[in-house]
Write a structure and sequence with these properties.
The protein is of the alpha/beta class. The protein has a single domain, classed as Vaccinia Virus protein VP39 (Rossmann fold). It contains ten helices and seven strands. Helix 3 links the parallel strand 1 and strand 2. It is globular and about 50 Å long.
Length: about 250
């Protein structure tokens, strides 16, 4: 089995006939992202590119607040479901071909989303550069990925000597994750690609106040630094947004 076949089989191994039906609201990361759009914490309108969007649930969920929804995925089977939900689709291996310049032109997208995707690719730095290329001036990227700095993950590693399992998928080793991220990693990757206004958004449902023994190890000189520390340690999901500068 070659690399492309392996990655495709990984992407579509959970496909079910039910996936061809309208989205039923049973996906936490999709619901979380939809809520951020509808609350105004993420921008909406124009063209959404959902990278690694699989069966197109996010595009379906936000069909009334984006004029165009494009789902990019490595699996044609998954994209059949995305089409059934009214999305446009692009079949592409991001590590091999970026965001497919022949199909997705420069400065053509308003918002890029990547939900539980960046931890599955070999070259996140090139992915960030590709996001910068396809976005219009002022466009936004939103990444949802497990937060390796979440205090329960640190407890597992420090107190029990067990590397934390950061995926809900237990069928393959560590859910097929190739990389593990904290906020500083994503800030470095995306600012190096040219992005600004990097921010961590609170995971309202998952957040838990971190224990004092973890907080005290991070220096806090003022209230803002204390809040930033709690955000880094208390969110199981790293919700990260950044913007392409205006007039670029």
């Amino acid at each position: 089995m070659d690399r492309d076949e392996l990655y495709t089989r990984m992407a579509e191994r959970k496909f079910k006939l039910k996936d061809l039906e309208p989205y039923d609201g049973n996906n936490g990361r999709v619901n979380r992202c939809e809520q951020l759009f509808r609350s105004g914490k993420l921008r909406s309108g124009g063209t959404l590119l959902d990278v690694g969007g699989g069966i197109g649930d996010l595009g379906y969920a936000v069909r009334d607040i984006f004029e165009e929804r494009i789902v990019l995925d490595i699996s044609e089977k998954n994209l059949d479901a995305a089409i059934a939900k009214g999305n446009e689709v692009v079949v592409c291996d991001v590590d091999q071909h970026g965001l497919d310049r022949e199909v997705i032109g420069d400065s053509s997208i308003d918002v890029v989303t990547a939900l539980d995707f960046i931890e599955h690719i070999v070259d996140p730095e090139n992915f960030a550069r590709e996001c910068f290329r396809v976005l219009q001036s002022g466009g936004q990227v939103f990444v949802n990925t497990p937060n390796f700095q979440y205090f329960e993950h640190l407890e597992s590693l420090l107190y029990r000597g067990v590397f934390p399992h950061t995926s809900g998928d237990h069928e393959v080793y560590h859910g097929g994750h190739l990389a593990f991220f904290v906020l500083d990693d994503l800030e470095k990757i995306f600012t190096s690609a040219g992005f600004i206004k990097c921010q961590q958004i609170k995971d309202e449902e998952g957040y838990r106040s971190p224990p004092d023994q973890f907080v005290k190890f991070l220096s806090q000189k003022n209230q803002k630094e204390y809040i930033d520390c709690c955000m880094k340690l208390g969110n199981p999901n790293l919700l990260f947004a950044c913007e392409k500068p205006q007039n670029i």
